[in-house]
Design brief:
Glycerol-3-phosphate (1)-acyltransferase, alpha/beta, EC 2.3.1.51
């Protein structure tokens, strides 16, 4: 099922969008890391199975698992349902377990989609920092940069940045707020550099 969904998404994005991946090898060569970036639309997690060979397990709000077609796509791509606005211990523990097994977990630190036309980042949450430091691993920031708000036949750029060693920063005494601030600044820098 995963390969079918992957092939379908790849065909869809190749036909209807011009997608460019910058520094994609930083994710392709990674193992057991969190990837984290800005969240603009329902397209965001779908770009990864379409254009990366690595399977990436994105956290997705559990409400999406109640919509039949989206539910099937999310399940096929291994998405992790999470209850928003709560400390969802089940989703957190599952993510940490996957990371320790060498899987890649995707987290949107804003928690919800941003509707800023200037790609300004919204309020951030500490999920990526908390999960990465508990799993003793790193965070790879990314930025999704559409030129016409995902309209058909528009361009989308997905830019991958340098890893942040969340575990090492936590061991040095950084708080989750401080690590999240570093992450959000890295995402913002990628957007400013590439848009």
């Amino acid at each position: 099922m995963y390969n079918f969904v992957k092939a379908s998404l790849k065909l869809f994005y190749r036909l209807f969008y011009k997608v460019t991946i910058v520094n994609g090898e930083k994710i392709e060569n990674a193992k057991g890391v969190v990837i984290s970036g800005n969240h603009l639309s329902n397209h965001d997690p779908l770009l990864f199975p379409a254009f990366f060979n690595k399977e990436i397990r994105f956290m997705a709000k559990e409400e999406l698992f109640k919509i039949f077609f989206i539910k099937q796509t999310l399940k096929a791509t291994g998405a992790i349902p999470i209850k928003r606005g709560t400390f969802d211990r089940t989703a957190i523990n599952q993510s940490i377990k996957l990371l320790k097994e060498g899987e890649i977990v995707g987290i949107f630190p804003e928690g919800t989609r941003s509707h800023s036309k200037d790609l300004d980042l919204g309020e951030s949450h500490n999920g990526a920092s908390f999960i990465a430091s508990r799993a003793r691993t790193k965070i790879i920031p990314f930025a999704i940069i559409p030129n016409k708000n995902f309209r058909l036949f528009s361009r989308i750029k997905l830019v991958v940045g340098d890893e942040i060693d969340a575990y090492a920063l936590k061991e040095e005494g950084k708080s989750h707020d401080e690590i999240t601030e570093i992450l959000m600044q890295r995402i913002s820098d990628l957007i400013e550099k590439e848009k």
